[in-house]
Amino acid sequence: MRVLFIGDIVGSPGRQIVRDRLADLVAQRQIDLVIANGENSASGFGITPRIAQELLGMGIDVLSGGNHSWDRKEIMEYLPHEPRLLRPANFPEGNPGSGLYLGTAKNGVRYGVLNLQGRVFMAPIDDPFRKADCELAKLPPDVAFVLVDMHAETTSEKIAMGWYLDGRVTAVVGTHTHVATADEHVITDVGMTGPHGGVIGMDKEAIIKKFIDGLPARFDVAAGDVQMNCVLIETDDAGPRNASGRLTARSIERLRLRID
Length: 260
Ligand SMILES: [Fe+2]
Ligand SMILES: [Fe+2]
Description:
Blueprint: E1 2-6, H1 11-28, E2 33-37, H2 49-56, E3 62-64, H3 75-78, E4 100-104, E5 110-117, H4 128-137, E6 145-151, H5 155-164, E7 171-175, E8 193-195, H6 204-213, E9 226-235, E10 249-258
Parallel strand pairs: 1-2, 2-3, 5-6, 6-7
Antiparallel strand pairs: 1-9, 4-5, 8-9, 9-10
Residues 39, 66-68, 151, 176 line the site of one fe (ii) ion (FE2).
């Protein structure tokens, strides 16, 4: 089984490269399931119902989120109605939406996607480790493939989650920093899908100015060097399952597509 995970999609340049490249990539690499982080897809901040539908219509099966999931107020009412749009599971009880999605991939395999958020240098939400235990306990035994998007700032918290879930899920990938890492084991950050001509997707002039003067500022999406950063996970379908009866990953490959 081949599963593509696309790193944080930023603004219209990020959406455009997915629209241009995803269908060919899925066909060429015979991909069974596509998951993407969409927390920055609306001008860099949040996601709207219209943009969620647009991305789901491009061949993305599940959208995960992060700290920016809540930026657009219209998403609050929409989240309960679109189970394929996740937000981190460990936000307080009672928040709209869910951090867990169960579905069936193109090849007929039942899968789960779990979205968690770290707490180091981030908002003090519920414990993602205990929350992962609770959410994984909900999975029926026929769920053969499980991917976790650990949305966090530090590599250490992401690697710790990778080890914590070792033997229980198929893959743990990281998002949020927008800078791809070179650790093809637990990928601590998949990187960003959007313009790399700025600072983590936003226009560099305004960011540099804010570092210098410390004043409130408005950030716009950057331009130039648009990349789609993803990872391709291949499972060992014939090999032994892990301790929880799930498919194990045979390989994880970083992919970087460019249009400029
Ligand atoms: Fe992000
Ligand atoms: Fe984030």
